[in-house]
Fold:
Amino acid sequence: MNGRLIQTTDTSRVKFRTNVSKAVLDQLESMAYEQNTHINYLIESGLQKVLSEGVITYDKKLRPHDRVQYKTTYDKELLDEVKEFAKKHDLFINDVIEYSVNFIDFENLKKSGYKHRVED
Structure:
């Protein structure tokens, strides 16, 4: 505006808190560092892939016992789809998140500076 950049809040993102395996979070933290991205971008990539496949094979008996609270932001539309998907498959959202880590698309990840992008 008037030749200056204006910082705006991305209204398509919402805060969400859940419990996720500590081991999975540690793995994601390492991947995020290697890929110059953020953990939530990795999670979103995996979730998008799982949702596009429409199938999940999850054994509830193998749920991790090292879950810790994890808070971050997600794309609102994606999170709503994940909630419906989890409900439809009789799972918890954190089950779907942990499962999705195996489906991250490393070729099309948002980089860590994505939230600072300049749009016209």
The longest strand covers residues 13-21.
